[in-house]
Amino acid sequence: MFSKPLIALSITLALSGCVTTPAIQHQPFTLTVAHINDTHSHFDPVKSSFSANGVEVFNEFGGYPRLQAMVKQYKAQAQKNDQSLLFLDAGDAFQGSAYFKINQGAMNADLLDQMGLDGMALGNHEFDLNNQKLNRFVSSLDFPIIATNVDVSHDTNFNGQTNILPYQIFAFDGDHKTVVKDINNLPKHKNLVAVFGLSLQNMPNIAPHTGDVKFLNEVKTAQSTVDFLKSKGVNDVIALTHIGNATDIALAGKVNGIDLIVGGHSHTLLGDFTNIGWSNFGPYAQMVKNPNGKASTCIVQAGKYAEAIGKVNVSFNSQGEVTNCAGHNTLLSNDVFYHKSDRKPQDKFTAAQTTQVEQFIAKQKNIVIINEDSQLRHEIDTKYKPAVEKAYGNIIAQVPIEIKHERRPGDSGAADKHGSAVAPLIAESQYYWANLPQVQKVTGKKVDFALIGAGGIRTNINEGEYREGNVRLEMLPFSNYLSVLSLKGSTVKQLLQDTITATLPEGAHAGKYPYGGHIRYTFDETKAHKAGHLTSIDVMTGTEKHPIWTPLQNNKTYNVVINNYNATGNDGWTPIFTAQNKHSTRIDLIDVNGKLVGYKVKNIEKQGDKYQVIYQGKAPNCKAVNTDCDTDAQAFIDYISQTRHQLVPLPYSVVTLDRIIK
């Protein structure tokens, strides 16, 4: 492993522009890169569906045992063909499932190690616990975390950490791969590939538990690192990033010398999936011109939740220039298919129907049927699953038909204008809960509407029995508490305008996309993927059966309920921070010893890159015994158990996004 002094020396040399060593020539060669990203602890398969020759098929995609089986195939092919191969993870292995809530990173390390990764980027959700636990996770890995623009030297939790590297250099001789530990003594007559890593430069505004870790500018760090590596004789350079596909494209247009970007963060399943009834999510292995106008960078990303794996072949000439870059993402399916989403035995495909689907899949390049790796499946089922199943608790509702969540309208196809059906239900539950008499007694406020960011919601609501654990452990796993605050109508309007606009570009990170409860809006795109404006915002003053919509007034003050993460202005909800910078009316709601307690906020200050909530008195302590901070999850549990035993979508839409269809 590289030591801290060598890391510091490497960055210093890069920033000083020290170019002393001539580039080492090598023979032209092709490198295969298998890659995953944003798996979010989805160790089990994800229930899904696709279209086969016009027939809707309900199936399952992915899961770690299925990923493992595919990776083993790739590695076996590489060995047979004497082919150079890297297997990379672009970050956000943490969060997103009940397994993570219970095991807090230990299971991630166990299973990722078994997959034989060559390196992983540092995602924002890796900071969801605390730096002590993150340090423990990093230390337990058999592969490095590669994070060039992340400086952990100021955070005492990372003292002695040697497994967070600025780059990793690999020497290839066909399928034979070795790690180069001394950049000043590079092996001769081998093909050298360097992988450096980039995390979000605004990480403190995205992840609330970054401690004293520093995050450097993405573009400056990338260019100085590439220059340094090339000065030492390493011509073939890969950036392993967790910054989002739109930012990857921008990076390629600002930095010279990156050959391949393997990305994550935006959950972008690059490629045209219209053949299975999905969307075209943008070109896989897109070539983007560098600022010098000569070379180009190839860009890939592989979706989310361990549903798919990407595989790209990159060919280099003797000068390290990319001569060809091609590949695709592959969705990993099981072989049991149903006609309906509840997957009842009577709706299972017949043998003949199954054969037809199998024949269809066999003709597609972006979907494959593959059995799970039996060893990894056995370990999950025996070592981890029993505790997870025990934690799910009581049944609180029946779901007659699957309710789908997507972050941004249009992601499931051009005809989709309204986006998530889950987010409005959650926002509605928060409006309902905040107006319960016992909650109003604490806040002293009647709430007018609720707002929620799409990224805080991690799952669909599957058909069948719905339990408390589906909410706390899976859908709303972040243990956020609800905040009630007063905002001007103009602030709400600015918030909607800013966050929607930020998510319009293809490949943009859409976690900040806003939904509401008892509020609706229409947004018209005026410049495809770049700009648009709100045409209406209405507040609901009636009931679900008899809604009455009244236009939002700029000068009127509204009481709004939002989870504490967004209520602080994180993830680009900056107008809310600005509104509370000098003075706040906000009250944070937390359960302490079975009693709801309100914590009054004085204001929010910007301290370095972070927003810091300043309380009028004692601040909440979510680590304290008998303190439950996940009132956002509790609100949804109370709402559906008290009012929606049959859980179905709201009868009206709260979001309408009219996009320009090219």
Automatic annotation (TrEMBL):
It holds the Pfam family Metallophos. It comes from Photobacterium carnosum. Residues 32-268 form the Calcineurin-like phosphoesterase domain. Keywords: Hydrolase, Nucleotide-binding, Signal. GO terms for molecular function: 5'-nucleotidase activity; nucleotide binding; UDP-sugar diphosphatase activity. InterPro entries: 5'-Nucleotdase_C, 5'-Nucleotdase_C_sf, 5_nucleotidase/apyrase, Calcineurin-like_PHP, Metallo-depent_PP-like. PANTHER family: 5'-NUCLEOTIDASE, 5'-NUCLEOTIDASE-RELATED. Residues 414-575 form the 5'-Nucleotidase C-terminal domain. The lineage of its organism: Bacteria, Pseudomonadati, Pseudomonadota, Gammaproteobacteria, Vibrionales. One of its GO terms (cellular component) is outer membrane-bounded periplasmic space. Belongs to the 5'-nucleotidase family. This is Bifunctional metallophosphatase/5'-nucleotidase. GO terms for biological process: nucleotide catabolic process. It comes from the Bacteria.
